[in-house]
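REQUEST FORM: STRUCTURE PREDICTION
Request ID: SP-0412
Submitted by: Lab K.M.
Chain count: 1
Length (residues): 275
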Amino acid sequence: MKPLLFIWTVVFCQSISAAEGAPKLLLAKTWNESIDPTGWWISEKYDGMRGYWDGKALWTRGGKPIAAPEYFLAELPKGIALDGELWLGRGKFEETVSTVRRQTPDDRWKQVRFMVFDAPKAKGTFEKRIEFLKNQLSANGKHVQPVPQWRCKGKAHLISERDRIVKAGGEGLMIREPESVYEGKRSGTLLKVKTHDDDEATVIGHKPGKGKFEGMLGSLRVRATDGREFSVGTGFTNAQRKNPPPIGSVVTYRYRGLTKNGLPRFPSFWRDRRK
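STATUS: Completed
RESULT:
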């Protein structure tokens, strides 16, 4: 592999989700204990890759076509938009992304499921859209299934359900505000409930490494969804330092609360969410 050349530069680029042609999807904020979840809808947070079916073709969140096999596409309803997660199972995020990104689908698609959590173009409240999905999709579908949803009885119930899912190998929960509409943006009507803080950011620069990381990535300069900019320098494998996420790609980072200036404390690279 040729040595990587890193340029410490800040590139002003739009988020991938705002790229031309990208579907306008509902994006989550993070739940905190000041929000009473009683009556909200609970579902598992599937650790996979976001997918959008526009009624004719399957797309990534960033607006790139997904080359799914014909037998998979045959289960998707024609003319009906669906928002969901392409998922191979708990703990299989990397394998899911590797499978979905291939230009030529392989046999791993036989194990992929499209877990559908909303119908963006359907009219009415979330409850009406849930019923619409139940009428359009089979709960026993081989590849396409509606996501199970159940009511939250309160904070203690929410935390108990989160811990149950995490103990079983899941990532956490998603909760939806009752009677909410579908918004094609980040919204407080959809919240993620996890055991750690994490968020997404767009890569805007690469800083070269020093010492043992000479000739590799030292840190990423990133821009968070609210416009804050900061560096992420830990959490990378050597392979990731040799071939880091490119400028313009979206990554997920973990952190331990916020500093007094509102920046993530001890941000650490977690995943490459390249669209």
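NOTES: Helices lie at 70-73, 93-101, 126-136, 155-167, 238-242.
Reviewed by: T.R.
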